[in-house]
Amino acid sequence: MNLPRKPGRVVAALASLLALTAPLAAQDLAAPREHPILKAVERIRVDVTTMRGLEFQADVRVGVKSPAELRAMVLESFEKEAPVEEVQKQEKVFKRFGLIPADFDLRARMIDFLSENIGGYYDPEKKELFLIDQSQGGGPQVPGAQAAMDEMVMAHELHHALQDQNFDLTRWFELLSSHDDRLQGYKSLVEGEAQLVGLQYLFKKMGRGDVDIAAFNRMQDMAMRMSPEAAKMRAIPPFLLENLMFPYTQGAEFVQRLQKEHGWDRVGAAFNDPPTSTEQILHPEKFFGPQRDEPKELLMPAFEAALGGDATELYENTLGEFNVSLLLRALGVSKANAAKAATGWGGDRFKSYETKDGRVVVVWLSTWDTEQDAAKFEAAYRKVLPAGRHLERRGAEVLLVDGASDAELPALVRRGFASVKYEARFQPLPGLTSRPPREDFVRAEARPAAAAPAAPAGLLHLDVVGATLRVPEGFQRVDDPIGQLQQMGSEHFAGPDGARLRLLRLPIPLASAEEQLQALIGQGVPDAEVLSKAPTRALGRDGLWVEFRGTVPGDRARSLGRVLVLDLGPDVLAIAATAPDGKEAANPQEVIEAVAATLWLDGSAGPGAKRATFGPVRLEEPAGFVARQGQGPVVVTLEHPSGAKVQVVRGEAQGELQARAAALEAQLPLVLDDFRLRASGLVERGGRPTHELDFDAAGRRTRQLTFDAAGARWTVACSAPADRFGEHLVAFGRVLATLRVTAEAEAPKAPEAPKAPEAPKPERRAY
Fold it and tell me: What is the rounded radius of gyration, in angstroms, for the C-alpha atoms of the chain?
């Protein structure tokens, strides 16, 4: 069924305890409403990430819409993505199959139904999440339980945002948009996982333990038959209603079985190689069993010539096993017998046309796993097939021709059986399986400008932890109230609304840090409870993300905290941020990510380090870099096969350092393509004023330090392709830590002016 389905527009709609779906186009986020659920978002987000074991890359924009706003949005979506003429074509085909009644207005009824039953949705194109305010009479409510229902919807939709930030929901939706059964298989993974997480959240909140999805679905099926509220649902043909429900009901059963038998990692892997049919969802062993059962694809020829050459094609698609069973049920076969007759489906395809005299003609070819499966389906279908339809089986293939004249039938049958059958197994390229970049999830207004010459303020060098960083806005450096941590060499910052930031460097390997993490956190937050730990890769280094909750000394309220521990080789750097529960002024993860974006590490000499001397400069020559003597003002260049480079440049110490640096910052955007300044400022490094500049340009990231020494001005520039800068961070730090300028170094002298008739004297340079 080709209802509006912009790629990934996932919509969760609650009716009783049942979520339905229809992809919608979100409007701009309305002004925030005072709704209790908005105060619970952070708590639910933490629970969802803990349950699933995945991490958000960025905050999710959350809002509340009224039922009237929802209906306007549904109408807009249909106008853009399902124009009237397209829906009318599909409606004619569904009616010819017998899937919906002859008097059913598909477009109008679906707009009404979706407008009344959507409880919330996440839009992965705009990265926004909305809850529909049921208190305004826009949808069904469960008496006395609306708050719990709202939290379940929020958990479900936040999980969609979590999926999107880890797997990019739009990728497969875009590729599968013209194949309904494959698309339904993928949607069942997406919605099934979110439904499982949402229900698990609700059951635990109610103190009922883990949810059994199969038992829950049976209970809902009974509620559908008995509840007065469900009468409206029963007015929707099963072909439409159950296709909306399928990703939530059968999809959740599929995901729960996959998770129980193979774990969450296997569920995550499925997003890179998803189920390709409703058959695999109905029979999970056909997806993750020893022999994966891929659907057969059918290439059908054109049939216009057999219809007189003036027929108009209406709609082409695939039904799939689930819709085959719904087709039999629509014609009077019992649910159990229809499911049995559809088992053994191997693949199908239909084409449909409207002739000049107004007839709708459908040619539908299906292929089955065995001839016995095909004969079983043919027998069940033939018993209920209305008169005048042609049904024929040849081996494992069954052909239906419906609406054709006696003269047209032979050619349609001949050409229908002349189709091509093949098996397609998608093999995604790396770009389809990589984690989407964080930039995709940061709102446009929150992103730095493509070319921003203004320097961010707050750059600070911290000797005790060996790092330079941009201090997040609103944070100030203060004494650490935890004396024990301060003695260990921590740096402490106080931020808005009780937020805290700490940096700590410890002379232990990452494995030991992970083992001692509870104790380390406990030194700063005595009642800390570690909620989750997950390995990560940041700044080109292995690391660990940790989430905890506890009472920070000096605060009354319990705080939510995050720690990023980075492996620096012989030691680790821990960046920790906390904020009292309910305070959103400084999200701990965003604080840490802001610090990491401009973090510059000092280094100590590595084991077996090779010291090298180049004229007045002595430094460690890091492994993998090749040194070459410079020319002119360039004293030395170190190059790596990856494109990383270190250059030491000497110039005249003219003018005040900060003024010269400011002039340089103004010039760089004019001479470098795609220039973006990350951070800049004058810091104290080793007792010496040093100007530090961090910027991106032409696909590279550069960190540049300028200082005065031995009567000259020295610039050390470390650069690399932007995506490989982090892997050289420690090597760059070691170069800076070991760089020494000898006292004998002389500033370059300008060439003397020529005196006629003498020849000009050569410029004197020291190397």
Answer: 33
Residue from 599, 602, 540 nearest 571 by CA: 602
According to DSSP, residue 666 is labeled: H
The two structure tokens encoding residue 267: 């569920």
Whether this model's pTM surpasses 0.70: no
Residue 352's identity, in one-letter code, is S
Place of tokens 């006292």: 743
Burial 715-726 (b: 16+ CB within 10 A, else e): bbbbbbeeeebb
The half-sphere exposure of 604 on its side-chain side, counting CA atoms within 13 A, is 12
DSSP designation for 621: -
Residues 237, 240, 244, 247: is their CA dihedral positive or negative? positive
Q: Report the distance separating Cα 396 and Cα 373, nearest Å.
A: 7
Quote the CA–CA distance of 98 and 96 in Å, as a whole number. 5
Residues found in the chain: 767
Other residues' Cβ atoms within 10 Å of the Cβ of residue 223: 15
| Maximum separation of any 2 CA atoms in the chain, in Å | 116
Closest CA to 386 of 107, 181, 102, 103: 102
Angle at which helices 238-262 and 180-205 cross, to 10°: 70
- Cα separation of 153 and 146, whole Å? 10
CB atoms inside a 10 Å sphere around CB 754? 10
Rounded distance between C-alpha atoms, residue 441 and residue 448, angstroms: 13
Domain boundaries, the chain: 10-293, 299-423, 467-596, 611-741
CA distances from 79 to 3, 76, 127, 347, 475 (A): 11, 5, 22, 32, 48
3-state secondary structure 690-758: EEEEEEEECCEEEEEEEEEECCEEEEEEEEEEHHHCHHHHHHHHHHHHHCEECCCCCCCCCCCCCCCCC
Pick from 160, 606, 88: nearest CA to 352: 88
In this predicted structure, what is the pLDDT of residue 453?
36
Tell me the CATH class for 611-741: alpha beta
CA distance 451 to 680: 15
Q: CB within 8 A of 129, min separation 6: which ones? A: 60, 61, 62, 63, 120, 121, 122, 123, 157, 158, 160, 161
**Segments in the chain below pLDDT 70:** 1-34, 136-145, 227-230, 443-458, 480-489, 517-527, 552-557, 582-586, 603-609, 743-767
In angstroms, the CA 237 to CA 418 distance is 34
Q: What is the 3-state secondary structure (H, E, C) of 159-190?
A: HHHHHHHHHCCHHHHHHCCCCHHHHHHHHHHH
What is the token pair recorded at 610?
A: 């090779």
Contacts of 251 by beta carbon, 8 Å cutoff, 6+ apart: 187, 188, 189, 190, 191, 192, 193, 195, 281
- 577/731 Cα distance (integer angstroms): 27
**Helix (H, G, I), strand (E, B), or coil: what is residue 718?**
strand
> What architecture does CATH give domain 467-596?
3-Layer(aba) Sandwich (3.40)
Instruction: Quote the mean pLDDT of the chain.
Output: 81
Upstream peptide bond of 481 is cis (omega within 30 degrees of 0) = no
The end-to-end CA distance of the chain, in Å, is: 75
Nearest to 410 by CA among 314, 303, 311, 299: 303
| pLDDT value at residue 555 | 61
**Other beta carbons less than 10 A from residue 465's beta carbon:** 21
Residue type, 627: A
Determine contact, residues 616/742, Cβ cutoff 8 Å. yes
For 440-472, give the DSSP string. Answer: GGS-GGGSPPSS--SPPS-EEEETTTTEEEEPP
For residue 532, the one-letter residue type is S
| Cα–Cα dist 635/617, whole Å | 8
Strand spans (E) along 117-191: 120-123, 128-132
Residue 739 CB contacts under 8 Å (≥ 6 apart), including other chains: 617, 618, 619, 648, 716
Query: Quick one: DSSP state of residue 183?
Result: H
Using CB atoms within 10 A of its CB, is residue 707 exposed (0-12), middle (13-18) or buried (19+)? buried
Contacts of 326 (CB under 8 A, 6+ apart): 99, 238, 239, 242, 243, 338
